Amino acid sequence: MDTWNEAGVREAPGAGPLAGLRILELGHFVAAPFATRLLADLGADVVKIEPPGGDPVRQWGEQANGHSPWWSMHARNKRCVALDLKHPRAREVVLRLAAGADALVENFRPGQLDRLGLGEAALREARPGLVIGRISGFGQDGPYRDRASFGVIGEAMGGLRYLTNHPPEETDLPPSRVGISIGDSIAGLYAAFGVMAALWQRDRAGGAPGPFTLDVALTEAMLSMMEGTLPEYGVFGTVRQPQGSRIKTAAPTNAYPTRDGQWLLIAANSDPLFRRLARVIGRPELADDPDFAANPGRLRHVERLDAIIADWSRERDAAEADRILGEADIPSTLCYSAADIAADTQYRERGMVRELDDPLIGRVLHAGVVPHVPEAPGGIRWTGPAVGAHTDEVLAEAGFDGAEIRALREEGAVR
């Protein structure tokens, strides 16, 4: 069984399944740094290049001791090098770091690295087998290539924002944001997956030179997640519409109000589950009612069915209702807030909520490592470091001697 030290770090042999892999990150904000954090959690040695003033995410959200708790998790397990990419000597530094890397992940606008002298040809001259993961708003080509973009643009053009709302007949409010930078994170997931696929192909070919270039667009990453939205339109001409908290294909699945003002998610959308739910809410006759006995009828009469279930849930506090449903083996849960997540015993037992000591901000909670790999567990080796915390160490590994590092610092190239 895994054990945990006082800092919340898993104490187990090995450093994760990606130990020995080196990734160079030329990323900022969310997408590329998210991709590399996933790889770092599984043991990869991620070297993050950020400007001398630090990645902008360091300033996002509420600050503790002048530092962002978001950064604590966003940059964990990475070694940070503060380098001014616009400085004349920056190109030399990046290329020497790239020479020792397996992959490079970046999310600048298309063409920006080329203008800095860090195009694919230069990077591959330094490291012929380098895998290059490129994340951008619209991809490296096409008519939108040079348009400005953030995750929210990808979410909108990928189709997610259109569906993230209540049905149009129920509201005239604008489509809602998911609540996190989901477009950036999804693109980061695809980039991390692509990097590993490219490394597998490279190593399968005996380490032969590439090119191994990944082109991940925020818009396309979101579109790829949209299930049957596009196929249904192609076959039937159907434009999927917002469903609120229901799902279109099965009922009952919804969020129901409780006596203490919370929301309880219930998903009893198979026939056996619905029969069980009908008994739990004291309406066993519903299971034999032609309007509700099978899923097609439940969908046709979903408004009436949800009202019946809501009458039951309103008479109970959320925790009590959830307990009753859990004992009946009906899928249900409270709609978790951050406080609920932090207190949850399942998350705590599996190490998905960890208490860490961050030297910059003190005690902090992190989400754990996904996926769990019991045979070679990843871990949280350190929290998001200070600006330039590893500059000297990383440059020395790349072959810069002490005099060169001092000169780079005096010239303002590094911090």
From TrEMBL:
Q: Does the keyword Isomerase apply?
A: no
Coiled coil spans: none
**Domain of life here?**
Bacteria
Q: Which InterPro entries does UniProt cross-reference here?
A: CoA-transferase_III_domain (IPR050483), CoA-Trfase_fam_III (IPR003673), CoA-Trfase_III_dom3_sf (IPR044855), CoA-Trfase_III_dom_1_sf (IPR023606)
- What's in the keyword line of the UniProt record? Transferase
Q: A Pfam family in this protein?
A: CoA_transf_3
Annotated GO molecular function terms are:
CoA-transferase activity
Its recorded name reads CoA transferase
What organism, scientifically named, is this protein from? Aureimonas flava
